[in-house]
Amino acid sequence: MAVKKSELYSILWEACNKLRGGVEPARYKDYVLVLLFFKYVSDRYKGQRRADFVVNPGASFDDLINAKGKPDVGERVNKILQKFLEDNELVGELPDVSFINADELGSGKELVDKVSGLIAVFENPAIDFRTNRASGDDIIGDAYEYFMMKFAQESGKSKGQFYTPSEVSRTIARLIGIGDITAEDGKDWTLYDPACGSGSLLIRAADEAPVDEHGDSIVTIFGQEKDISTAGLARMNLILHQKGTGTIEKGNTLSDPKFITTYKTGFRELKQFDFIVMNPPFSDKAWSDGIKPEKDEFHRFDGFGIPPEKNGDYAWFLHVIKSLRPNGKAGIIMPHGILFRGNAEETIRKKIIKTRYIKGIVSLPANLFYGTGIPACIVIIDKEGADTRDSVFIIDASRGFKKDGNKNRLREQDIEKIVRVFNGQEELPGYSRLVPYSEIWKKYDAPDSVEDTESEENDNETSDDNNGNMNVPRYIRRIDDTLPQNIAAHLKGGIPQYDVESLQSLWGVSPALRDAVFTCTDAEHGIYQLAVSSDKIESIFNDDTNLIKEKQFEGTTVFENWRDSVRDILLNITEATEPKQLIRELGAMILQSYLDSALLDNYDIYDCLLNYWNEKLQDDVYAIRAYGYEAAREIEYVYATKRQKDKNGETVTVADKSKVKSFEGSLIPREIMERTYFGEWFSELQALADQLSAIEGEMEFMREEESGDEGLLKEVLSSKGELPKANLTKRIKELEDKKTSPELIALAQMVDTIDNQSELERISKEIPLLEETYDLRTKKGNISEV
Description:
By secondary structure, the protein is α/β, with parallel strands linked by helices. Among the domains are: 1-155, N6 adenine-specific DNA methyltransferase, N-terminal domain (Ferritin); 487-543, no CATH class; 547-632, no CATH class; 634-677, no CATH class. It has 29 helices and 18 strands. α1 packs across α7, α8 runs parallel beside α13 and α21 (545-570) runs antiparallel to α22. The longest helix is centred in the C-terminal third of the chain and has 27 residues, at 679-705. The termini are far apart.
């Protein structure tokens, strides 16, 4: 059966992270990702004819396994990888790594152990891509993305720029409309990223495009990256996502663009593309290195002006505009400063406003990106229909995110809301608005002339003219959700009316509930008091019939209606089912189902569904698509482990299949199988488990109570405060031995015959120690009862 994505990611990351040692994440990632790539290609194509890659003898992952543990393992790995690269004409295409680098991997036994350990990580049977096909090739591509994300998280502020967060990439891909194109006859759709990094943004955009009859994307991919090692990551990323025909060029895009159209006359111009996505380095201070902007061969700054020498944001922006076809569309990530900074950038911005190329702006939360913590925005550029465009659609999505360690991340509901609101041009108070260009700058449609430019420079901003300033807060006033201060309530005591009205969703469901809980004591100042004691409020809410009815409707009825509507979809998954489109359909249906809910937010419900999809459901769908619903019969066992020698004589830990510890259904959870097929036994086992838990609780209590200096367990506790079975057994035996001494037996016999003086005398004479130890006789010389 297929390994689940979450399991694969955990296996790979934890193992590799333990082996990292002192190697910097930014560098260590190259070693790990190259091996992951080589493992996949070797498993996937070894022994196949006319395959995308050649895997010859001496250049496969099996050869790496044979090299594991050898004193010269580093040299062997280098030779194997080099042969593979030469056989496939990939020399110089992938990150440059050397497995004999003492500075990064150590030397001697340390290097041997580290390199051998890395090979062993990818030798894990759980990631054998020869048999695992349930997720198609998504599983390895997404695993690669996961690794890059984790390395970006650990690389620090200056070295994590190679990766654009997946959530942002997916948002941009859906905003530029690439999913709406069709495979027209003779039309060559193109997608370009001039600062592609590791290729994540390119791939997410290409994933949105339709596919042809062979399942291949109908867009051709082009990317350029300045950092040679990162360009190698991008190349591998494309291959692992089945987009190996894409082109990744190395070099500085601004000073040496690689995608050029050259005419017979010798004239050269930038190649133009249908779609562009980009996340360039923010505020690039070295953007003009190697270029004379005023003499730019490709005329990128003509008609707009030259960006500031120490800030290249608009240099990248103008490169995108020049590289777009007449009907082209782009989604680019920019710092907020491009929307409002003055001087040369203001001049450029006003020139861009005149073109009306900007279709929309989405303000994002701060601290999303690994290279910087500053807030950024997505600028949507659309040349198609620009001559008739009279407004910009602006979204303030800066408050929609979740915390993830020391970074923020867009939630699934945030992505869906941005896309739906933007594509539907839906105006929501405090969130989105269609802003006329005339409000941004009254002269946006004025003709360009020297006189006009001079008048613009001297123009003072009026109250209804923002003079080309596009800063989002100027156009979307956030809804203040903080509770206002009520001075009268502070002075006189009580609950402000605003606080009571903030629960309007509840009062809408049950109007009488408000009066049952609150009483207005000062209508002039809007002050309320509780109508009942605070300890009765919960029961009033719980007993309200209207509220009970609405909770039942939204919590059960609406969900069951949605469940019934998607049942046929989930029961008819085939090889042709596209999982990513499937979940989009299910998500759209649940958003619609909860659209009119009074208590539950439909985007919150959508987020629950998508989180469950990401954690579990997508693995099931991929498995059903590959194996059919018969996959539900499959059981995956968890075995005990044992240690044995491998073929190299090394001691390794392997599964002991003679001892089953547990099991799990490939599709059906174990708990469901237990309750359905073993209900009676399951109940008995559950009762025993509860009993065991109670006993363990009692034992823990006893251990705490009797572990002191005078405690009964003092003699048996270990140095760590634990209660070893051997210590406890030994101590019990010692105490039992004391209970059976001759003296104790004799005393017990005397108690039993206390009225028989002669028998008492006999016992006393047989055990002299009794009278020596205990005062048994009375003054008259008889043995006393006492």
